[in-house]
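Technical annex B. To support the medicinal chemistry partners, we prepared a structural model of the target in complex with manganese (II) ion, based solely on the information shown next.
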Amino acid sequence: MSKLQKYREKRKSDSTTEPMSDRKAEDGKEPIFVIQEHDASTRHWDFRLQVDDVLKSWAVPKGPSTDPREKRLAVRTEDHPLDYADFEGTIPEDNYGAGSVIIWDRGSYEHRTEKDGEKISFDEADEKGHISVTLHGEKLQGGYELIKMKGERWDDDQWLLKKTDDDEADARRRPTNTQPESVVTGRTVEEVSQEDE
Ligand code: MN
C-alpha cells in the first residue's frame, strides 16, 4: 500500500489545488521540515517532517511555541507528498481542508531520538511515541519534541509538541503572533485568502 493512499482518498484530484505527485526524495539531501498555517474550518499549523519520500504530519491547533513550558496539542494526520512543502494557496470550497495555506516556516532538520544512549531510527521513535528533532528553520531553530499521549480510545493519535529547553528556547517570542507571514512570499494567510477570492 502506498504511503500516500490515505492522502489521495481524502482528496478530489480534479478540484483541489494541492499537489498530487509522488515524487521521490533525492539521495544525499538533508531532510526538510515545513510548518504551514492553514485557515481551514478551524485555524491550525501543520507540522511536517520529511521521512524518506513523504512528509509525516501533525495538525497543531495553537501552533508551535518557543516556550519549553508550553505543550501544544498535535493531532497526527495522514502522510503528505514531498511536493506539499512548496504548497501555498487556497484549497477550494467543498474540498477536504478548504481554506488558505501559507508556508509559515521551512528548513532542514535532524532526527536525534535516542534510546539507552544510542540513536534510533525515525520509525522506532514514532513507534515508541517520542520523537526528538532539531529544526533549522527561518523562524524556528533548535530542539522540538513530539510526545504521544496515551489515549482512552484505540484510534487516538494525539501528541504533544514542545520546545526542548535549549539555547534557542525563548518564552517571550510568540512567533505565530509576531511573525505571521509566509517565509516564501511574505504574505499572511488572510492576504492569500483575499487574493484568491
Ligand atoms: Mn491542515
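Notes passed to the chemistry partners:
The chain is about 10% helix and 40% strand.
The CA atoms of residues 146 and 161 lie 5 Å apart.
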